[in-house]
Amino acid sequence: MALLTIEKKPTVDVLPAAQREAILADPGFGRHFTDHMVTITWTEGRGWHDGRLVPFGPLSLHPAANVLHYAQEVFEGLKAYRLPDGTTALFRPETNARRFQHSARRMAMPELPVTTFLQACEAHLRQDHAWVPEHGTEKSLYLRPFMVGTEPGLGMRPAAEYLFALIASPAAAYFAGDVEPLSIWVCEDRVRAVSGGVGDAKTGGNYAASLLAQTEAAARGCDQVAYLDAVEHRWVEELGAMNLFFVYEGRAGEPPTIVTPPLTGSLLAGVTRDSVLTLARELGWDTREAPVSVDQWQADAAEGTLTEVFACGTAAVLTPVGVVKRAGAEWTQGDGAPGRVTLKLRRMLLDIQRGLAGDRHGWVHRV
Ligand code: PLP
Ligand code: COI
């Protein structure tokens, strides 16, 4: 399939360089978008066709399009960084491509071939590379591939037509304070996802389901919500957009132990989570994918054996947790400041992503 044909001269409608530079000086997160986007169509019987790199702009959808009513939607999030030599690279895009397929399968949507996903990312990045912030900062270009059911009709069944699109947005640190520790509300009543449900698919409904608890957490002065399992309301799963890690610093001279909840099906298999586990194992640290209860979290923090907690995700990289609140209790994690283990892993990851450290795992995908 000759996939990505350039439909329109890409120099048309490009934002003037001075305006782009002004945005890149202070991009925020998800507020500004680059000049182009990729679109690819899927139709039953025909498969994927009409791949295009087109100027960024509104999509036209039938008011009865499946996604608007029955929410067949999946998305991904990955970052492009500028390397020291001025070229650009994506971080582990094949992993995102495979997770996109996993999400699509769960939502009864067609799977985009991994090579096509990569082709879309590369075509976009080659065109809009000027939007990748300069090397030497923590800024990046955040790529957001997504797919929606576009077939019109109110019948309750998988759509027979889909649109894949890829847009991109320059990004500063996701949280305003950079490595400023987060405050977490442990939500013991509302749940984000259930066993057997769609929690391990990156689908918009999971995020919609988390917004009310997020609003309630904000009203309690917290930045993020930690969700528990939906059966016992006891086992920590993840935050609304990040995985969680618990760090037990060993006695002097002993390596730390880092623990993260196992992939039970109701939480997202984060690419950052996997990268952190890999890096920690390489350091010879004890890494465990094991259940952590909220009571254990509170008790170990009080005892002082739980020395650090951090959240991780593409948008947020690694961010320490400083304060934790749950119904009837509140505690400060350690001394409330970013911990040694968190900062070390964060630095290692960022250095690999930005081409400052060796890439032993082939994670850095140069474009
Ligand atoms: N959990 C949820 C619910 C997320 O939305 C994300 C962000 O993508 C993550 C975890 C972390 O995943 P990743 O490291 O692949 O970005
Ligand atoms: C990501 O880290 O890519 C995410 O999906 C977070 C996003 C929901 C803001």
UniProtKB/TrEMBL annotation:
Family the entry assigns: Belongs to the class-IV pyridoxal-phosphate-dependent aminotransferase family.
Swiss-Prot/TrEMBL cofactor(s): pyridoxal 5'-phosphate
Catalytic activity: L-leucine + 2-oxoglutarate = 4-methyl-2-oxopentanoate + L-glutamate; L-valine + 2-oxoglutarate = 3-methyl-2-oxobutanoate + L-glutamate; L-isoleucine + 2-oxoglutarate = (S)-3-methyl-2-oxopentanoate + L-glutamate
UniProt-listed CDD domains: BCAT_beta_family (cd01557)
InterPro entries: Aminotrans_IV (IPR001544), Aminotrans_IV_CS (IPR018300), Aminotransferase-like (IPR036038), B_amino_transII (IPR005786), BCAT-like_C (IPR043132), BCAT-like_N (IPR043131), BCAT_family (IPR033939)
Pathway the protein acts in: Amino-acid biosynthesis; L-isoleucine biosynthesis; L-isoleucine from 2-oxobutanoate: step 4/4; Amino-acid biosynthesis; L-valine biosynthesis; L-valine from pyruvate: step 4/4; Amino-acid biosynthesis; L-leucine biosynthesis; L-leucine from 3-methyl-2-oxobutanoate: step 4/4
First-tier enzyme category under EC: transferase
Enzyme Commission (EC) number: 2.6.1.42
Keyword entries, A-Z: Amino-acid biosynthesis, Aminotransferase, Branched-chain amino acid biosynthesis, Pyridoxal phosphate, Transferase
Name of this protein: Branched-chain-amino-acid aminotransferase
A GO molecular-function descriptor: branched-chain-amino-acid transaminase activity
N6-(pyridoxal phosphate)lysine modifications at: K202
Keyword Amino-acid biosynthesis: yes
SUPFAM superfamilies linked: D-aminoacid aminotransferase-like PLP-dependent enzymes
